[in-house]
Amino acid sequence: MGFFTTAAGDYDRHIGRYGRALARELIAAAEVQPGARVLDVGCGPGALTAALLAHGATVAAIDPSEPFATACAKRHPAADVRVGAAESLPFADSAFDATLAQLVVNFMADAQAGVCEMIRVTRPGGVVAAAVWDYADGMTILRAFWDAAKTIDPDAADESQMRYCTPDALADLWADLADVHVREANVRADYESFEDLWAPLESGVAPSGAFTVNLASEPRAALKRELRTRLAVGDEPFALTARAWVVTGRT
């Protein structure tokens, strides 16, 4: 996942804009209580970690990207932040009241192993929960981006083709848990202008950014024009909405 080794600030300006709002939705769905011991799996630069700390939780966090984990630790010194993979969590059995993963399950090398580890480190009766974008329809910026990308390269690797991005797939992945529910969460992000939206893509962050920077200058300019047209935005401030699927279950 080399597209997640860029500077944390680039992620913040791209998908990270939606992170705090989505984190609040995930925390509410998981029914996290103040004072709970919570693990943030795939913490990135720390949007969910920040929301959990503000909620009054005791937080540990882990991410395979060293730049992201370093940024999370610097931003949130109250959290126990480590570098590592979901498939091999360096925590004891039943160490947490809740284990959450925001926008990471579909990027795990082995999601089934990752969820098994999330279950292992969660106490009996605790909550295991995750949020994943609705890439196929409801995540406006990414849906528009990949539709635009296919006008440049019909074989562009649309993120909607990844596994575990639909309610049914998430429910199946959570099959070893009890009281499983999948619901939608709708959030929004504000932009100063189209250039504010476009600039992070030029950093190579996330699959969309990686696709962008791998284009030569002419097709990249064509992608930029097409994306702007599809979003129908210009030089004035605007907002975009995003839908995620949130799955919860109890150990």
TrEMBL record:
Taxonomy, superkingdom: Bacteria
Entry keyword set: Methyltransferase, Transferase
One protein family per Pfam: Methyltransf_11
SUPFAM superfamilies per the UniProt record, alphabetical: S-adenosyl-L-methionine-dependent methyltransferases
GO biological process, one term: methylation
CDD domains according to UniProt: AdoMet_MTases
Residue stretches making up the Methyltransferase type domain: 39-129
Protein name: Methyltransferase family protein
Species annotation: Solirubrobacter pauli
